[in-house]
Amino acid sequence: MRTLPALLMICLLFLGCGKMENVVPRVPVNVKIVKTDPNYTSLNAIGGHAYVKGGVAGIVIYRQVDGSYVAYDRCSSYQPEKLCAITVDDTGFTATDPCSGSKFSLSDGSPVKAPATKYLRSYVVNTTQFEIFVSN
């Protein structure tokens, strides 16, 4: 009779540990940039963006209309195993996955054009007067 609860626990363990597919992997991110660095002057303007190293396929930092910053992994959420890095469109409001043609809003990372259905992986952004910190 004691084997029944043990067997039940083992079954629950195996059923609860299913493999998650089509998810951008979680990797440690800890990036600091200086706002006055000439490489990041585009972030001084609303709608400006900059690419930085880190994440799975790089990180894009974007300055929103309200002046705040958001950061997303450049790895597309559509078939992330392909490691396709999104690029910001000329409009400055969306980014495109060159492998699938999916588009994402830079204001919240949401997919705005199929085939993507999942948001971009976002990171935490903290700012001071002179620096931008991106982490998870």
Describe this protein's structure.
The chain is mostly beta strands and 136 residues long. Helices cover 10% and strands 30% of the residues. The chain has one helix and ten strands, in the order αββββββββββ. The strands form two sheets. The protein has a six-stranded antiparallel beta sheet with strand order 1-10-9-4-3-2, with no helix packed on it. A four-stranded antiparallel beta sheet has the order 5-6-7-8, with no helix packed on it. It is globular and about 40 Å long.
Per-chain topology:
Elements: H1 3-16, E1 30-34, E2 49-52, E3 59-63, E4 69-73, E5 87-88, E6 94-96, E7 103-105, E8 111-113, E9 122-127, E10 131-135
Antiparallel strand pairs: 1-10, 2-3, 3-4, 4-9, 5-6, 6-7, 7-8, 9-10
Concise description?
The chain is mainly beta. 10% of the residues lie in helices and 30% in strands.
Low-confidence stretches: 10-19
Overall structural class, as computed from helix and strand content, comes to mainly beta
Could you give the order of the helices and strands? HEEEEEEEEEE
What summary fits the major beta sheet? 6 strands, antiparallel
Name the average pLDDT: 88
The helix tally amounts to 1
Q: What characteristic shape results from the CA principal axes?
A: globular
Terminal-residue CA separation: 46 Å
What is the rounded Rg? 19 Å
